Amino acid sequence: MPVAAIDQGTTSTRALVVDDAGESRIARVMEHRQRYPQPGWVEHDPEQLIGHIRQCIDACGEVSALGIDNQGESCLAWDAHSGEAVSPVITWQDNRTAQAIDRLRRDGAQELVSERAGVPLDSYFSASKLAWIAAQIPAARALQRRGKLRLGTTDAFFVERLTGHFVTDLTTASRTSLLNLQSGQWDPDLCDLFGVPVEALPEIVPTTGDFGVIEQRGQSIPLTASVVDQQASLYGHGCRAPGDAKITFGTGAFALALSGTRPLRAPQQGLAPTAAWQLAGQAPVYALEGGVYCAGAAINWARSLRLFQAFEQIGGFSRPSAIARDLVFVPALTGLACPHWDSRAGGLWLGLSLDTQAPDLMQSILEGIAFRAAEVVAAMHRVTPLADTLSIDGGVSANPYFCQFLANVLGRRVAVQPLAELTALGTAQLAGAPPPPDKAPGKCYEPVEDMAHHLERFAQAVERSTRWLR
After folding, report:
1. End-to-end alpha-carbon separation of the chain, Å?
2. Is the pLDDT confidence value at 440 over 70?
């Protein structure tokens, strides 16, 4: 029988069904609302998300098992008795806790967070958002007083609503800043540091196994995998050996490189060790992670400003590269992640002039995303040797200009994966689906121009964008 995957992402929820031959089909895609109640705040409606998940499950038909992937750092609070959400989903893009993070940094908390959790002290991760919910949402405070508060990332909410199991998997727990990487359990000192009640957090379990049964429309569907979306994508890319790496260019751009069976710490490079997956009955596998907050989001933002209308318009340009003409864009529209970790950085253009036109701006946006990805890959390669070919996917990977420029900036081959739904595919494989049949390889881009001298120019622009916002 087929196996299904639910890919619950930043902008949409989609269902993928994989048959016994490994052939896959998208059963349904549902977009959800993005809410921006204040500058720097980004929220989702949890009831809308769980509703869309259930509708996507309905669209899958009869299946033998199901896996679900989640947004990673997005989190919320809910009632242990009723299952009702009492807060919005505060997404990974949200930086409302930037001032709280600054206070912790001034108090010297970075050392403890790096030592125990292995991640930078940043509002990107879930801990400070969970603490904000526990302190600022009256309903959450009331539930905590009665011992009925649930706090967690979205996966724990989804799984408990679907099956009654209050759990989170190791990959998602590693995105919170609350996991002790050595023990694989919540760290009481980190929970105290951030102000997160440890008793309100879910149990940590492997990525695959028994997550309970979803009873829906006469079906009893075993939920057999739960995982962070980017780790699911890593699995879907076929990365299995240390040094295998991928970048998914979606809303953000997220690079992961497998590092082996022990977490590899690289705070000096701004990289975060993270659990890649833990198969039932096996030891965890770890990866290094580095992110670019704005990739596709920057392009969609530019489209909303009417800098272009159709994506075909930005697949190639008649003029030399924007950077060669001293036009630079830093895509820090929601701050800078790896290797800078500056939530107060601001997006900027440098080199504008009276003859700058909309195509020039779009060219510089694509180049800025590629430059930021190159910063992350360079940081990874300094820590652990990467394979010669970098595998990429996601919406931006369909842009020929971007892919060739990325290969030039990286100085290495870039392979665009031919399958479009690698995140959902990886989730389905973790849930028990067979691998896909051999397909024609995707397009590969070889570097054709040395861009090393432009990297320093881009670094100067990044420096000007840092610590800009109050």
Report:
1. 55
2. no
